[in-house]
Amino acid sequence: MEPRYDTLFYDGQCPLCAKEIRTLRKLQRGNLIFADIHEQRDGSANLPSHEALLRRLHLMTWTGEWVIGLPANVRAWSHTPFGFLFKPLLWPGIFQIASRIYGKWADKRYERKYACAIGDNETA
């Protein structure tokens, strides 16, 4: 059987994101590829827009399916021994609440209300 690799697209200029990626790199079992969105070319490999990649976490499965937002985070962590801890975030009821929280956090991050750099090094 061929190995099945998922690709996680992340903001390499965001200190918080970089910290989580370092942890995922250490813990993952070898089937998760990491792609810094700032190193991707617009229009390459049918990627979503640069803005879309910055607004929400994106993961492309080994079958080419896009998983976005909270489900992308859960899927990324499923490549580690701790993935089971994230699965409840997808349960009905919990998912609706957790998705709303994730969405609000991601919007604030994108608007630079957090310490993440987006595109350049200006501060909010």
Automatic annotation (TrEMBL):
GO terms for molecular function: protein-disulfide reductase activity. Pfam families: DCC1-like. PANTHER family: OS04G0668800 PROTEIN, SI:CH73-390P7.2. This is Putative thiol-disulfide oxidoreductase DCC. The lineage of its organism: Bacteria, Pseudomonadati, Pseudomonadota, Gammaproteobacteria, Pseudomonadales.
